[in-house]
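Quick check before the chapter quiz. The format below is the same one you will see on the exam, so make sure you can read both the input and the output lines.
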Amino acid sequence: MPARKTEKTVNKPAKKPAAKAPAKAKRAKPFKKILIANRGEIACRVIRTAKKMGIQTVAVHSEADRDALHVLQADEAHCIGPAASSQSYLRADKILEVVKATGADAVHPGYGFLSENAAFCRMLKRAGVAFIGPNELAIKAMGDKIESKKLAEKAGVNVVPGHTEALKDYGQAKTVAAQIGYPVMLKASAGGGGKGMRVCFNDGELKEAFVSTVREAKSSFGDDRVFIEKFIVNPRHIEIQVMADSFGNTVYLGERECSIQRRHQKVVEEAPSPFLDPETRAAMGEQAVQLAKAVKYVSAGTVEFIVDQDKNFYFLEMNTRLQVEHPVTELVTGLDLVELMIRVAAGEKLPITQADVKLDGWAIETRVYAEDPFRNFLPSIGRLKRYRAPEGEGVRVDTGVYEGGEISMHYDPMIAKLITYGADRDLAIGAMRHALDGYYIRGVEHNIAFLSALMNHPRFVEGRLSTGFIAEEYPDGFHASDVLHDDPSVLISVAASMHRAYQDRAARISGQQNGHERRVADDWTVIIGDKHVPVTVGTVDGGYEVDIHAKGYATGPLSVRTDWKLGETVFEGTVGGRPVIIQADRLPVGYRLLHAGAQADIRVMSARAAAMFTLMPEKLPPDTSKLLLSPMPGLLLSVSVVPGQDVKAGEELAVIEAMKMENVLRAAKDGTIEAVSAKPGDSLAVDQVILTFA
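Here is the expected output.
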């Protein structure tokens, strides 16, 4: 088992948030021991606050998570079953056994798994154990999207036009859609986390979506009820954080903008929203409080709204738990939401009123996932061979991984949540760009290039957001051409300086034969892409000066200053006075640099060697055009074709389930199926052949 690790925590911003935090004076511990019924970064997050409060912690884990970070950080840990969530983290009975065996007097469920399970809440109450979350009735009332919409209407909360009863079949769905008017959205009544949702623009799409939504609802939530509502065009997703105690005190803690989404999964969140004005914020906050009071809500909760371009807002759902994106609220309010949840669950009063809540500065969160954005965001699994999270003022990393740990196919592929703080939005974005540049992950694919592209996108910088942002800006998927470097001179200068540093060290090696000592040249050719760029590299005052002798690049010498040491994987310094953080991997011939989401393989060599290099033949990849390969490791749910069948471009071929999501594989062009090599129920490896075209 690896040595005990310490989670990266927030580095406090220089400017202290103005909101009044819980009193720092010595207080009695609300609980002696808390069991965290979850895994990953949220389990580590709860453990961090519990330790700060002097409360002992108990971790539960599956067999696959035996060496997970939350297991290493807790005071004690207990295995509750095999890797599959249904046999471990979703087994309320096994978790209750651990609660009794350890003497834990409270349970924090985190988010996902059993966090919004009313039966689990009831079991704990009967056992005399506190549930750090809302009561059973509130969970049930808000957990059903149909019933919650009815309750919201009664509480005077604005709701989206739609049909609030479960649909019987496609025929009824078609009739209701005609009444509401396209576009419409199908939603699983018990859904959440972006699953069980489909947007439809016509009857044909509705027919296909109804079948898949019902199937996904049943497999994911054990409830196949589906309802339909109007889809708001060009909407923004803005949510209100509420906190309530058992004495009737309920406050809202500002809003979070969560409009940057992919497949209904949030990718970027920020607080406050760049769109809301104080009047709209207050109106949304007051309605969120009305709804919370209507169900006698206690603890942290989030009321989600869809907001149109005219600032009209409509209730979407209420999440009766701590949200993934809660850190941005913590940074702009100065409040520890987990501590407030713990104290409220112990029967304490909220230490703040609505007048105490002040939003100070700006915070942005990006979700770092083990997925390949250049292959349609397919999940990636494996061992984290190298892992270095960014640090610095205003940077916070909530993670459940460490170098040498594994990203498993059994759970969500999140590596970490990266959060940055600034006095204003521009500074928070700038801090996020630098933090992403320095986030070094090797061993699995990750989405940092995509996140960097978002942070540098003009539309994001301007705050012109909507839930369709990603689909609109990247309609054909995300490609390397979407992250071309805006100033290759920076990459050329850094690569040339690094090469000069390695050459200088080689020249200092002792024991060289007289007359054959290694000499360092000043003139080199840098090969970047298909361009050969002559450079001169000189040493000046402990740094380097790089002259680029080619049109289209920086004119005059660029000064390169850094404390970088040979072999380090992150180059931090200045180029021409501009601060940069560049990831640097040494290749057999040259260097791989990553900066601002762009990757460049750069070779530095003599002009003669560069001329010879261009004559080397290029190795072509094997032809796989007649094969349907599994793009990810996962479970093959279905195969929709048989040998000899003719298929059209776009037709469904197979469905793979990986990391809790269904992935439909479709024909890229017209063709005929020659052979099917896999069957439903097979566990597929990445690039495993599923079928062959004639």
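If your answer matched, good. The domain at 488-509+518-613 is CATH 3.30.700.30 (Glycoprotein, Type 4 Pilin).
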